[in-house]
Write a structure and sequence with these properties.
single chain, 755 residues, alpha+beta, Rossmann fold, Immunoglobulin-like, 7-stranded parallel β-sheet
Length: 755
């Protein structure tokens, strides 16, 4: 069921979208106990406890529930949840073997993400173990059609009639057969007046050089736009342009968009880096409109993807335009459809396995009809973060280290709570909507959850938000709903993740929440308020410097055999914490057994020719550490090994030290009152004349801090700036540059002022 967009306001000329679906309660919620499904309110969700053998629960005499029989009697064929008694484990030994085997199959990205959550330790568990394939084949042999296989729940969803359902219930490994929730009263997408934009006379966008899929994904491909077009207000309201100015645009982060479908031919989306896509409705690798889809099927997903990461400079730009994208088509638009909760969970498992870092989902499930409607609808009392299938799925995704962002819904103020699920889940970012003036949208759903937690967590612009329109490559317009505010927050979460790859997902969430404009007085309308992306990156209570970015080694390749000297070591460049920050690389070569470092040298380049004496016929391991001006270091993603042949080396003589000027990042940055600028000089004897100036973004001189000062002795130096210009006036918010000139060299850095 989709509730991500608001009803149309006739007084405003924008694209409007409504899709109001209702979902029923599935008894399969018992697949995970409440204690496992939800953490303590207000605390980060802990790792799932299912890391030890547990005997299978007793199998009931008749796994086929009366509710399923009633559904089948009314509908003939319906969607059912089938839950299994086990995953093939019979005792502690077979359980351990199954978990061990499943752990070896976890992708390297997913493993690294989970290691970050646990302090560097990867611990596979029962939820990594796949559903027994023989069980699935047995279900298929009954004549039922298997829709999704869900390892987190050890279940499948099937389309079956009553005869097939009885055959399924007779299988010895089936624990329960329950009706899946289904949509009721579904409305088609309603398209209101569209305000189209003439994107520069209809000409194709001029993309920067290198903006192709063949680039190294870990590096920037799409240049920072000089013109954000009509998306500037929504980005500026959450301080995204300043984050872009600091060099963050989503590079190296994977964002999964769960929605209705996607028009990848749209000009704002075609430059983006799509990693994979899957249609969980028709079960194929095509998320665009296809046979059986309504014409509006892809409309909503196209728009939300563009809001999160679109790229057409001068027209529309999203926060995370350099991210990698996973596209999951989970929501079926037409009326009389079965519920998409299982599609959502299946998509979450799929994205987890690939290595997604962030989810943005503008989907919601609830129904507040009175009792007597079939007993399958979610009521307010079930918006507790642990009852619905999607809430459980969202928490599982969180436990896997994924930052989950979900729209609150468009139910407005309906009494105690109007939150939809999975926005009711704990430890995720549930997103409400405000207008450009930061006033709460009337349609934005309110908290608390039924168990008393504040919802939403944060808000962003969801009124008159600029987005892409599917079906026409150059069509753009505005729309309203929490569907639009959520991808803005999802894109911002990508930038925070990029800036802090060492943070846990909960730290990313808290950085965005704790720096929002109402963080000190959260409520059930705004949550902690409108997010501030730059503040989340630099000034959050989570702390931590902006280290150099992870990078990889190039050659010699892993397990290379080298028979000659010199040996050339190459690696990819680690992006600097700030565009102007010079990163140096410390190269280390160590013996493997015993592990002992035998060679270390620093260089500003991305290769080093090694002529040092190395033992013949000996395996060595080498790695590189990138260091910023404050000497914060980050090791390369990998440590490569090579083995020498019958060689002898010549001791290396380090080159003479050249005069060097090293300008550090100002502290703090962003700054609200004053800042301190550190620099160091080396390679010169005696005092050195130094000039230090501050400029605004247009290159105009703001203040001279040092003017050809002759009293600076080589070494570490520091200059204070009080936040004022040369006339003593406090400078306004914005981007500034400070520049040092010394020893014939010039270095500059960026400084962000936030008032």
């Amino acid at each position: 069921m989709h509730r991500g967009t608001a009803p149309r306001f006739s007084s405003i000329a924008f694209l409007t979208l409504t899709l109001a679906l209702a979902a029923g309660l599935s008894a399969i919620a018992a697949a995970v106990t409440a204690a496992e499904a939800a953490p303590a309110p207000g605390s980060p969700a802990q790792a799932a406890p299912h890391d030890r053998y547990r005997p299978a629960p007793p199998r009931p005499a008749d796994p086929l529930s009366a509710a399923a029989v009633n559904r089948l009697a009314a509908e003939g064929t319906s969607v059912l949840w089938v839950r299994f008694v086990d995953k093939g484990e019979r005792d502690e030994r077979s359980f351990a073997a199954a978990v061990r085997a499943a752990g070896s199959g976890v992708s390297s990205r997913a493993r690294a993400r989970r290691e970050r959550e646990t302090g560097g330790i990867f611990v596979p568990d029962w939820y990594d173990v796949p559903v027994v394939s023989d069980y699935v084949q047995g279900i298929a042999s009954t004549g039922a059609r298997v829709r999704n296989v869900l390892r987190w729940f050890n279940a499948v969803t099937v389309e079956a009639d009553v005869a097939a359902a009885r055959r399924i219930a007779a299988l010895p490994y089936v624990q329960s057969v329950e009706p899946a929730s289904r949509s009721r009263g579904t409305k088609p997408i309603e398209i209101g007046p569209v305000r189209e934009v003439d994107p520069r006379s209809g000409q194709a966008p001029r993309l920067p050089d290198g903006g192709t899929a063949t680039e190294v994904w870990a590096g920037l491909s799409l240049a920072k736009p000089a013109d954000y077009g009509l998306s500037l207000p929504q980005l500026s309201s959450i301080n995204v342009p300043a984050a872009h100015d600091s060099g963050f645009s989503g590079s190296g982060v994977i964002l999964c968009v769960l929605d209705t479908g996607f028009d990848e031919t749209h000009t704002s989306l075609s430059p983006l880096r799509k990693i994979a896509e899957w249609d969980f409705i028709q079960h194929d690798a095509e998320t665009a409109n296809q046979g059986g889809d309504a014409s509006s099927q892809w409309s909503h997903g196209t728009g939300t993807w563009a809001v999160a990461g679109g790229y057409w400079p001068g027209v529309l730009v999203g926060p995370a335009y350099n991210a990698g994208f996973l596209l999951a088509k989970t929501e079926y638009v037409p009326t009389e459809t079965h519920v998409e909760e299982d599609n959502w969970v299946a998509a979450a498992e799929w994205a987890d396995s690939i290595g997604a870092d962030v989810f943005t989902s503008s989907l919601g499930y609830s129904d507040f009809d009175p009792a007597g409607n079939g007993g399958g609808d979610y009521g307010k009392q079930q918006m507790d973060g642990r009852t619905s299938i999607v809430a459980q799925g969202a928490i599982f995704a969180h436990r896997r280290g994924i930052v989950v962002c979900n729209s609150m819904g468009n139910e407005g103020a309906l009494g105690t709570t109007s939150v939809t699920s999975p926005a009711d889940a704990d430890s995720i970012l549930s997103v409400g909507a405000v207008d450009v003036n930061n006033l709460l949208a009337g349609f934005s759903s309110r908290g608390p959850t039924w168990d008393g937690r504040i919802k939403p967590e944060v808000v962003a612009q969801g009124v008159g938000t600029y987005w892409a329109i599917a079906g026409s490559p150059t069509s753009y317009g505005t729309a309203s709903g929490t569907s639009l505010s959520c991808p803005l927050v999802g894109g911002a979460a990508v930038l925070v993740r990029e800036a802090h790859p060492e943070w846990t997902n909960y730290q990313v969430r808290e950085a965005l929440r704790s720096t929002a404009d109402k963080a000190g007085t959260p409520d059930n309308n705004y949550g902690s308020g409108r997010i501030n992306t730059v503040a989340a990156i630099y000034n959050s209570s989570q702390g931590g410097p902006i280290y150099p970015y992870p990078f990889s080694l190039v050659e010699p390749a892993h397990q290379s055999v080298l028979g000659t000297v010199p040996i050339t070591l190459r690696w990819r460049r680690s992006r600097e914490p700030q565009p102007a920050d010079p990163v140096t690389y410390e190269v280390s070569i160590c013996t493997v057994s015993p592990a002992q470092c035998v060679f270390t040298m620093s260089t500003p380049d991305t290769q080093l020719v090694v002529t040092a004496s190395l033992l013949p016929f000996t395996p060595y391991e080498w790695y590189v550490t990138a260091k910023d001006p404050a000497l914060h270091g980050r090791e390369s993603r990998d440590h490569y090994r090579f083995t020498t042949g019958n060689i002898t080396g010549v001791p290396m003589t380090p080159p003479p030290t050249a005069p060097k000027v090293l300008l550090a990042q100002s502290r703090p940055n962003p700054v609200s009152t004053g800042s301190r600028i550190d620099f160091s000089l080396s390679g010169a004897a005696g005092v050195v004349p130094v000039t230090l100036r501050l400029f605004d973004a247009r290159g105009r001189l703001v203040r001279t801090l040092l003017e050809n000062h002759a009293g600076v002795v080589p070494g570490n130096c520091s200059v204070a700036w009080d936040g004022a210009d040369r006339n003593g006036r406090i400078v306004p918010s914005g981007i500034y540059y400070y520049q040092i000139e010394a020893m014939g060299r010039r270095e500059s850095k960026r400084l962000v002022v936030v008032r």
